[in-house]
Amino acid sequence: MNYKIYQVYYQEEQKKLLDKEFCPFDNTLNKRPDLREYHIFRIGYKKALSERLSHWGFFSWKWEKKCKIKPQQFIDFIEKNPDQDVYIMNWCPYIECCNLNLWSNSEIYHPGITSIADQSLQKMKCDIYPYRSVSEIILTEKNFCCSSYFMASKKFWNDYLVFSNKFKNTIDNDQDLKELVYGKTTYDNHQKCTYFPFIVERLFSIFLFLTENKYKILNYPYDFSIYEKYVGENYKEMEKASKLKLKFTEESDKEKQVKYYNDWINQLSHINFPILIPDLD
Fold first, then answer.
1. 8 Å CB contact between 141 and 242
2. What is the C-alpha radius of gyration for the chain, rounded to an integer number of angstroms?
3. Taken in order 102, 103, 107, 109, is the CA torsion positive or negative?
4. How far apart are CA 90 and CA 222, in angstroms?
5. Is-above-0.70 flag for pTM?
6. Is residue 237 within 8 Å of 224, Cβ to Cβ?
7. What is the strand order of the sheet 86-88 is part of?
8. C-beta separation of 104 from 245 below 8 A
9. β partners of residue 165
10. Distance (Å, rounded) from C-alpha 107 to C-alpha 126?
11. Comparing 29-33, 115-119, 252-256, which segment has the lowest mean pLDDT?
């Protein structure tokens, strides 16, 4: 397996903050900063092919601040589990355990994003997307991923880029959608960005959910204890909620499914909010 994890930086001063275990990816001359990861994925795809890689991914320069583990821990995880199609590093299990999907949480930071994503996907008319709304999709530790922290095979990247490119073309060829998707949304309470990169960031988990039987997928095991210094023993309640949600999504018996769902809802009441964890974006 010939792989690289690129660590993206977009300002020169960030370069000194990169992790030596990863490969620097210079994004300082990005001609489409408004597209964020979408643009990086495409220029990075060409770079990865030129380097004859079998797997690659693009992680933020804020790796350790977000993931709260050392880069070598993730690399060791890959080395012990070679030749998977997708390796997920979901840096925020506290969000996964308390939300049905990425969209319910995103409404807090980007109000209206769910409706805009729904309209875009409906006009996209994708054969593999049978849902009326993204809010119907239930994501668990198997496919929940924030901030595009994943590494994937060439096979997966080929398919995913076709999917995301079709999504963007649908928007660009519809004037009403363009006005909605490229409208402004508040981010970090001080920057102004369009909805586009935040929808695309969540497209990965949707695509993974829709096609998971096609690929070998492995997620880095959650370790809720890393939140102990922020929430004390409450981290154990978060872990229970995550496991209950996984149970009701995997249960085929309707009665048991409802029971696990109700147990999950009840478990959420045991989690003391607000959970003040740095870097919630």
1. yes
2. 19
3. positive
4. 8
5. yes
6. no
7. 23-26, 3-9, 55-60, 150-153, 86-88, 217-219
8. no
9. none
10. 24
11. 29-33
Give CA–CA dist 99/139, Å, rounded.
8
Read off the tokens for 217: 């997928």
The residue type at 6: Y
Please tell me whether residue 103 adopts helix, strand or coil conformation: helix
Is 28 strand, coil or helix?
A: coil
Q: Residues 79, 26: contact at Cβ < 8 Å?
A: no
pLDDT digits (tens, 9 = 90+) for 14-50: 999 999 999 999 998 877 777 888 899 999 999 999 9
The alpha carbon of 102 is separated from its chain's Cα centroid by a whole number of angstroms, namely 8
The token pair at 6 is 């690129």
Q: Quick one: CA dihedral 165, 170, 175, 177, positive or negative?
A: negative
Q: What H or E segment, with its residue span, contains residue 217?
A: strand 217-219
- Asked whether the CA dihedral 64, 74, 234, 92 is positive or negative, the reply is positive
For the chain, where are the alpha helices, taking DSSP H only?
37-50, 63-67, 71-80, 93-96, 102-109, 113-124, 154-172, 175-181, 196-211, 228-231, 234-250, 254-268
Between β-strands 150-153 and 55-60, what pairing exists: parallel, antiparallel or unpaired? antiparallel
Query: Are 138 and 101 contacting, i.e. CB atoms less than 8 angstroms apart?
Result: yes
- The amino acid present at 100, given as its one-letter code, is L
Distance separating alpha carbons of residues 85 and 259, to the nearest angstrom: 33
Pairing of strands 150-153, 217-219: unpaired
